[in-house]
Amino acid sequence: MNDMNALNEEFSQPAEGQPTGFGMRNKIIMGVAALGLVGVVGWAGLAVFGESVPNGANSVSPVANANAAVKGIDSVLASVNGMKVTEMEVGGLLQQGIDKAIVVDRYINKVIAAELGREMYAAEAKATLQAAEREVLSTLYTTRRLEELRKAISDDDVKNYYNANVLDQNFQLWKVSYYLSSDFADAQKTLASLKKGDKDAEAQLKPLVEQGDGFAAAAAMPYNLGRVVSKMKKGEYSEVLQLRNGLLVLKVDESKQVKKPTVEELKQDIVQALALQKFNEELEQARKKAKVELG
User: What is the C-alpha to C-alpha distance for residues 228 and 239, in angstroms, rounded to an integer?
Assistant: First the structure.
């Protein structure tokens, strides 16, 4: 078994994106509560996780600007050739503690430069403005629509989702050991010895999870091994399992049940998941109705 070290190195790597133990409890809960829905909204670098989209230190959200203007709370600080400079436009710089007079003076230069860019490079300006407009409008739609959808989620919706998806078995943990081989005959022989209680064979077993107390949820186990482990009992051995580059035997050393989070503890996660699900369904329907022609 000359390549056993390579096999062990490969096997010891967790599946990409998977936590390796119950120390990552929040990730497991989030995965159960949202079922992979949280964070699926995204295009052109836009990701939606809350009320607004992160902005640079020197700016505020374009959507916040629009809302402020609609509500009449934005004050005019200057005018350049009839174009207003408002407090919301320079809010980011003001929040950094820079003197308002300096901020306004610098921003007037930006307004003048913007107009020169519009005049001198008309074609590029048109394309740039179109891209900026679509970015701002898509952000406006996403932010406002998700807010509306979250508010529309009822307590009954949350309870139904919780009862259907947040199950006790999602919070059962296993401590598992394994034997890895590159030869089928060797794996079968070792499995037979393990079932007979052979001490030398048992000494070759290694812990599946080395971090923490060694326990892991099924969803956190590499290579989808949780599907096998979840059907096993304490002290039971699996049959020889075929991996990509080797053969594996598993043993369940221990299992335990941890307390399932309450519906109240997961309420906000579930509301977000359901809102995102509805949002994506609406967007998918709009995409189907759109006339799309690729150039």
Answer: 10
Nearest to 176 by CA among 243, 248, 246: 248
Cα angle vertex 131, ends 126, 135, to 5°?
Answer: 145
C-alpha to C-alpha distance for 154 and 275, rounded to whole angstroms = 11
Beta pairing partners, 237: 251
Q: Which two tokens stand for residue 181?
A: 């081989």
pLDDT digits (tens, 9 = 90+) for 219-273: 888 888 999 999 999 999 999 999 887 899 999 999 999 999 999 999 999 999 9
DSSP string, the chain: -TTHHHHHHHHTSPPTT---SGGGHHHHHHHHHHTT-TT--EETTEE-SSSS----TT---HHHHHHHHHHT-PPEEEEETTEEEETTTTHHHHHTT--HHHHHHHHHHHHHHHHHHHHHSHHHHHHHHHHHHHHHHHHHHHHHHHHHHHHH--HHHHHHHHHHH--GGGGEEEEEEEEEES-HHHHHHHHHHHHTT-HHHHTT-EES--STTSEEEGGGSGGGTHHHHTT--TT-B---EE-SSSEEEEEEEEEEE-PPPPTTTTHHHHHHHHHHHHHHHHHHHHHHHS-----
Would you give the distance in Å from CA 122 to the centre of its chain?
Answer: 40
Q: How many CB atoms lie within 10 A of CB 4?
A: 14
- Whole-number Å distance between alpha carbons of 111 and 29: 48
Cβ partners under 8 Å of residue 207, min gap 6 = 175, 176, 177, 214
Model-level pTM?
0.60
- The residues with which 80 forms a beta bridge, in sequence order, are 83
